[in-house]
Amino acid sequence: MPRSRSFLFVLLALGGVGAGCYPTPNHMPIILAGPRPLGSPSTPGGLRFEEGTVIQLQLEVKDQDNDEVFFRWSQVPANPAGAFSSTTVATPTWTVPSPPEDPNTPIYLWVEVEDGNDGVLIGQSPALYVIAK
Question: Which residue ranges of the chain lie beneath pLDDT 50?
C-alpha cells in the first residue's frame, strides 16, 4: 500500500485528524411527569372516564443536551379508537372512545419521545377504563 494511502487509512481508523474530534455522547430524553391525564390522582387499579370525555394529557420531558424533542402518541388497543387532538405534540387532548366489548379491558396511551439523535424513550399511561354514558 502506498504511503499516502496508509496514512489516510490510519486517519479514518482513528476517527479524525486531531484530539477532540470524538462526538459528545447523546443523552436520552427523560420523562419528568406523565404520560397521564392532567390532574389525575395516582390510583392503583387505573383511572375511569366516561365515554366522550375530552382529557388533557400531561407530559413533561427534559433533554439534557437541549436537543429538539419529537413526540408520537398512540393507543393500545387501537380499537375502540379514542381521538388525539394531535399525535405529535407533548400535551394533546384525547377523547375517550366508546367502551370496549369487555368493560374490564384497559386502554393505555403510549408516547414515544425522540430527540433526533437516536435517543428514544417510551412512556405509558396508567390503565384507563371507559364508563358507558
Answer: 4-19
The three cell numbers locating residue 11: 486517519
CATH superfamily assigned to domain 25-131? Immunoglobulins (2.60.40.10)
Collapse the DSSP code of 13 into the 3-class scheme (helix H, G, I; strand E, B; otherwise coil) and give the result. Answer: helix
| pLDDT value of position 21 | 63
Structure confidence by residue, pLDDT tens digits, 5-29? 443 333 333 444 444 566 788 889 9
Give the torsion sign (CA, 10, 14, 18, 21): positive
Nearest to 109 by CA among 85, 130, 84, 89: 84
Burial of 12 (0-12, 13-18, 19+ CB in 10 A): exposed
In angstroms, rounded to a whole number, what is the distance separating the alpha carbons of residues 25 and 41? 37
Q: Which residues contact 37 (CB under 8 A, 6 or more apart)?
A: 47, 49, 55, 56, 57, 58, 125, 128
pTM listed for this prediction: 0.79
